[in-house]
Design brief:
heterodimer; A: 321 residues; alpha/beta; 6-stranded antiparallel β-barrel; 6-stranded parallel sheet; 17 strands; 34% strand; globular; B: mainly alpha; Globin-like; 7 helices
Chain lengths: 321, 123
């Protein structure tokens, strides 16, 4: 008889019960709705053991790649260890190896890591400065020994304050994660176009995903749209221009709201729709940044005809103190 | 009539997946109702719509009147009324028509959707 372990508590699977049935029978308050694998409310992360491919039917490939499955569709044949979706983050010790400004209000933070294979550019981690100071940041770059984050400095923000005044090269911190499903995934080497759009530090995951696609020699077109209020918001401008020069299938499309020399003046959702024209049905679309602009872009892209399953996004949430 | 269920006749899970984008796009494009979806996260909403479509297509579900009431309470306060429910049922019908469903099946779907009207409107 197989067992399911969740939060260090083990439950025995009876007869042909699913993982969800077993948890519910044992009084576990577990998210669920349709119980037929459609609504995906019971999305669960496999931590150890194996699950059938039927239990991953209909999930986004990015979720399958991270061992997610549907508890209602899984009849475990062996012992498994599971975690609720998004509560699976492990914490690893790290230290700060670089701190520098990308522009007046964005900080580049590099954190040491031992195992780069755990992370995918575009996912996010929780930066743990202390037990009470934890914030989420997207991964902009992964090298063999460090992760790079772009931290927007928030006036009176606690993490901003810590990074600006307390943290130095060598300061210890913890990395919790990674989390999120906003990353490059293309096991069949398809040539679909990729469009990435975001404002502010939404650029961090987007440049990470674009570089990852280029590193995997993605053959389709890649368009990165970065929006700002004015050109001072467009950090890494020269880097992106250089990437465009080096790769014929990469286009960098900056845009700003205020009048500027040489940079297109338009709102980012207009530039997005313009670039989606003619590729709505094939595109894989990545949208990142502050909640309001991401929600607007997601909805407009969806209304313009991009399938909901092709829209990938992790909206940023700024904590209000 | 044969003895297949409504859910089977419509095409089951595949029909839900095919219908969800078409249906939700119609709803979001309709100025009479899209204000009630302002600021909602699209991905979460697509999951919720899948649950809703599974229910009204006669599929297995665990929707309870309480869920329906809780989920729409804040919208009733903002003015959600019978006319909006009618519009949703109308979009449901035209979605199914586009997917080639039979008229009598569409009527059955509308009847299921109608059966939760009072819960949705918190009456």
């Amino acid at each position: 008889m197989s067992s399911i372990t969740l939060n260090k508590q083990s439950y025995t699977v009876e007869d042909n019960d699913s993982v969800l049935d077993t948890l519910l029978k044992n009084g576990v308050d577990y998210p669920h709705s349709c119980k037929i694998g459609t609504c995906q409310s019971c999305l669960t992360k496999l931590v150890d053991g194996t699950v059938s491919s039927e239990s991953q039917h209909g999930l986004k490939p990015t979720l399958v790649a991270q061992n997610y499955f549907l508890a209602c569709q899984c009849n475990p044949e062996n012992n498994i260890v599971i975690a609720r979706a998004n509560e699976n983050a492990v914490s690893t010790p790290s230290k700060i190896i670089k701190l520098s400004h990308l522009n007046a209000n964005v900080l580049c933070v590099r954190l040491s890591i031992d195992n780069p294979n755990l992370f995918k550019a575009g996912q996010y981690i929780n930066l743990v400065a202390s037990d009470s100071l934890v914030r989420s940041y997207s991964i902009a770059d992964i090298q063999s020994n460090y992760l790079e984050l772009h931290v927007k400095l928030i006036p009176n923000g606690l993490m901003s304050h810590w990074l600006s005044t307390v943290a130095k090269i060598g300061t210890a911190a913890h990395i919790r994660g990674p989390l999120g499903e906003c990353f490059y995934y293309n096991t069949d080497n398809e040539t679909f176009p990729i469009v990435l759009a975001g404002t502010g530090t939404g650029l961090a995951p987007l440049i990470g995903i674009a570089q990852d696609a280029l590193a995997h020699k993605h053959q389709g077109e890649i368009i990165l749209i970065h929006g700002g209020v004015d050109e001072t918001d467009l950090y890494l401008h020269d880097t992106l221009c250089a990437i465009q020069k080096a790769h014929s299938n990469f286009t960098y499309a900056p845009c700003v709201l205020h009048k500027s020399n040489g940079i297109e003046q338009a709102s980012i959702d207009k530039i997005l729709i313009k670039n989606l024209c003619g590729i709505m049905h094939e595109v894989q679309l990545f949208i990142c940044g502050p909640t309001e602009t991401t929600n607007k872009m997601k909805t407009e892209a969806f209304l313009a005809g991009v399938p909901s399953a092709s829209i990938h996004s992790d909206a940023f949430i700024t904590l209000k103190s | 009539m044969n003895d297949t269920t409504l859910f089977e006749r419509l095409g089951g899970e595949n029909a839900v997946n095919a219908a969800v984008d078409i249906f939700y796009r119609k709803v979001l494009a309709d100025d009479r109702v899209n204000g009630y979806f302002d600021g909602v996260d699209m991905e979460k909403q697509i999951q919720k719509q899948k649950g809703f479509l599974t229910m009204v297509f006669g599929g297995p579900n665990n929707y309870t009147g309480k869920d329906m009431r809780e989920g729409h309470k804040h919208l009733v306060l903002k003015g959600l009324n019978d006319s909006h429910v009618d519009i949703i049922i109308e979009h449901l019908g035209s979605t199914l028509q586009e997917l080639g469903a039979k008229d009598e099946d569409i009527t059955e779907v509308a009847a299921i959707a109608n059966s939760v009207r009072n819960d949705v409107l918190n009456r």
